[in-house]
């Protein structure tokens, strides 16, 4: 079932979450261990991230450095299928532009279609760490909007090979990312919203936001979206803060601000358990206010660790 149908059919706020494929070489059991404790909150869908190649440099015996390309977290398509079989909930694979040609993307989409997966979250992906900015694959896409157009084309039965006889159209429901604190590369929020609206106009049907810790920023973002004519559901992305080090890691990695009250409370916590409790209580309060605000779903970034998300969900659902 499509995410939009789940949202339309719901008579209360839904609970959903995102997991990462395990690092290459790890068993799928680690994925199940992250999902099992969250199933009692009845997620109608589970998102699975997609990861591009990364470059590592290995020193050879002659002292020269060799650039090696690896994908540390492959397996998104297989994990989505395993989730659907084991838990009978919809899996939402993320599909990214970075590192993939249009043909590789089409092949992945066909696999997803054959597996009965109805949803995709379409993203550009970040730049490779060793590169100064995002560089698209030479036969790939530069923006999520280009990827949306490919999926919309496929939904109309237009494959890359135009010679195909009687091609069968896919029917993917398309979600995209939005940034309450604006995307790091956008010159300002208005420009970012212009491109977000472009993604919706092209065929995206709902938005999941970057994580945020200040609800006012989310509510202002929703109002700004509505003001520029974005009418689709906007799902807030949430993450309970769990360690002191995240005070620096989260802003750096996700380009977000942490509210002063939260930072002060985390800094005052004396033990790791106390820090975790501060993070959980903060997110519970966020969730209560967001439900009041009327969000259709609360979406959690679990990073494949379920304990803190389960503690929040227990207080809300
Ligand atoms: P885009 O929509 O392409 O936007 C990127 C920048 O370009 C923005 O500044 C925007 O304003 C601008 N822009 C957009 N369209 C155009 C256009 N047509 N012309 C000119 N400028 C434009 N990353 C992963 O690698 N794997 C994942 O699984 C993953 N999942 C994510 C899930 C969520 C909910 C979120 C919020 C992020 C996720 N990311 C993931 C990170 C994401 O890939 C990065 O934030 C990336 O830098 C931007 O992706 P985007 O889809 O928002 O890009």
Automatic annotation (TrEMBL):
<dbReference type="InterPro" id="IPR004620">
    <property type="entry name" value="MTHF_reductase_bac"/>
</dbReference>
<keyword id="KW-0028">Amino-acid biosynthesis</keyword>
<dbReference type="InterPro" id="IPR003171">
    <property type="entry name" value="Mehydrof_redctse-like"/>
</dbReference>
<dbReference type="GO" id="GO:0071949">
    <property type="term" value="F:FAD binding"/>
</dbReference>
<dbReference type="GO" id="GO:0106312">
    <property type="term" value="F:methylenetetrahydrofolate reductase (NADH) activity"/>
</dbReference>
<dbReference type="Pfam" id="PF02219">
    <property type="entry name" value="MTHFR"/>
</dbReference>
<protein>
    <recommendedName>
        <fullName>Methylenetetrahydrofolate reductase</fullName>
        <ecNumber>1.5.1.54</ecNumber>
    </recommendedName>
</protein>
<comment type="pathway">
    <text>Amino-acid biosynthesis; L-methionine biosynthesis via de novo pathway.</text>
</comment>
<keyword id="KW-0560">Oxidoreductase</keyword>
<comment type="pathway">
    <text>One-carbon metabolism; tetrahydrofolate interconversion.</text>
</comment>
<keyword id="KW-0285">Flavoprotein</keyword>
<keyword id="KW-0520">NAD</keyword>
<dbReference type="GO" id="GO:0005829">
    <property type="term" value="C:cytosol"/>
</dbReference>
<dbReference type="GO" id="GO:0035999">
    <property type="term" value="P:tetrahydrofolate interconversion"/>
</dbReference>
<keyword id="KW-0274">FAD</keyword>
<dbReference type="GO" id="GO:0009086">
    <property type="term" value="P:methionine biosynthetic process"/>
</dbReference>
<keyword id="KW-0486">Methionine biosynthesis</keyword>
<dbReference type="InterPro" id="IPR029041">
    <property type="entry name" value="FAD-linked_oxidoreductase-like"/>
</dbReference>
<comment type="similarity">
    <text>Belongs to the methylenetetrahydrofolate reductase family.</text>
</comment>
């Amino acid at each position: 079932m499509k995410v939009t149908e789940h949202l339309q059919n719901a008579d209360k706020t839904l609970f959903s979450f995102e997991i990462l494929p395990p690092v290459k070489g790890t068993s799928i059991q680690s994925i199940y261990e992250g999902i099992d404790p969250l199933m009692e909150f009845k997620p109608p869908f589970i998102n699975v991230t997609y990861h591009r190649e990364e470059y590592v440099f290995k020193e050879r015996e002659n002292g020269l450095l060799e650039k090696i390309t690896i994908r540390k977290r492959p397996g998104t398509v297989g994990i989505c299928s395993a989730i659907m079989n084991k838990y009978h909930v919809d899996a939402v694979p993320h599909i990214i532009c970075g590192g993939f040609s249009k043909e590789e993307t089409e092949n992945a989409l066909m696999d997803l279609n054959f597996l009965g997966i109805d949803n995709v979250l379409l993203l550009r992906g970040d730049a490779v760490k060793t590169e100064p900015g995002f560089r698209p694959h030479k036969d790939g896409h530069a923006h999520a909007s280009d990827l949306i157009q490919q999926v919309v084309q496929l939904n109309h039965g237009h494959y890359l090979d135009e010679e195909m006889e009687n091609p069968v159209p896919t029917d993917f429901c398309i979600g995209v990312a939005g940034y309450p604190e604006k995307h790091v590369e956008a010159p300002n929020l208005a420009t970012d919203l212009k491109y977000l609206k472009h993604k919706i106009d092209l065929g995206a049907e709902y938005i999941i936001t970057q994580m945020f810790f200040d609800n006012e920023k989310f509510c202002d973002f929703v109002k700004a979206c509505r003001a520029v004519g974005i009418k689709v559901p906007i799902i807030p992305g949430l993450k309970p803060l769990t360690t002191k080090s995240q005070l620096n890691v989260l802003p750096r990695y996700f380009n977000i601000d942490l509210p002063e009250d939260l930072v002060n409370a985390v800094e005052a916590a004396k033990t790791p358990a106390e820090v975790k409790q501060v993070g959980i209580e903060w997110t519970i309060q966020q969730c209560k206010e967001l439900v009041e605000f009327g969000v259709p779903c609360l979406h959690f970034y679990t990073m494949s660790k379920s304990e803190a998300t389960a503690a929040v969900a227990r207080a809300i659902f």
